[in-house]
Task: structure prediction
Amino acid sequence: MEALSDGIFAFALTLLVLDIRVPIREHIISEKDLMSAFGTLTPKLLTYFLSFMTLGIFWTAHSSQFHFIEKSDRNFNWINLSFLLFVTITPFTTAFLSEYITFKFAIAIYWLNLFLLGVMLSMILNYAAKHNYFRSDVAGKDEITKAMMRRGIIAQSLYAFGALLCFISTYLSIAVLIIIQLYFVLGLFSKSKSKKASPLS
Result:
């Protein structure tokens, strides 16, 4: 299950970049034309950067959960597959957002993708905890579950705040979402440097 999940994450991360296409050569006759054409790629580069971090964060969280899980059943498999469904949709919602970056609806669709990723990730954790699928040698299972759930709630609350900023400016909304993702990414690096064992790293 974990190998399948890693493969789908890798595929989705690769698909993200395919939406960014090099400007057509025949339309470029000067340095100014090339810089102008590159500038038009800004929405796609912004959303690519955002979604690459997003999938990276969710992959890290998913891997962290499976570090503690050793059992599964049919229902658990389908919960995990449902999570992966929204992973595979991310390249589409990213492309949709980059194409209609000034529209609030595009932000809403992207936020919905983030929300459903978070919901399904929480369901994986809850199901594993409820059915005692954690490794027998793991200490403090309740504390680990609560810590992961708390982190997920904080993340989803911040995502919702960032999405709501689209009513002021869609670019502001995307910028704040990127800052939120950077916060989590830098937080992971900080934990790694301090060499502290954490169920969220």
Q: What stands out?
A: The first helix runs from residue 2 to 17. The chain has seven helices and no strands. Helices lie at 2-17, 31-39, 42-68, 74-99, 104-130, 141-164, 170-194.
